[in-house]
Design a protein that fits this description.
Elements lengths: L6 E4 L2 E3 L23 H18 L22
Antiparallel strand pairs: 1-2
Length: about 80
């Protein structure tokens, strides 16, 4: 996935700062974040992200014991 900031030329055209790796007639997905996004919209995005993360790991994903940690991350806290 590539995130590219584009300039709005008019309501139906965007100007990219550099070429993207896509062939003519390929489809790309554009997500537009607007200044007026509400907290409920943000909550929906967070819920969607959390669901995708849950789907990335199976029910049988092992838990790792603290004794298996070789080097602790001082910035991590439970």
């Amino acid at each position: 996935m590539v995130i590219v900031k584009a300039k709005i030329v008019d309501p139906t055209h965007l100007e990219l700062p550099r070429p993207i790796a896509a062939d003519c007639l390929d489809c790309v997905y554009v997500v537009v974040t607007e200044a007026g996004d509400t907290d409920s919209e943000r909550r929906e995005w967070l819920d969607c992200s959390a669901e995708a993360l849950r789907n990335a790991y199976g029910e049988s994903e092992p838990d790792y014991a603290p004794s298996l940690i070789r080097e602790c991350n001082p910035d991590y806290s439970v």
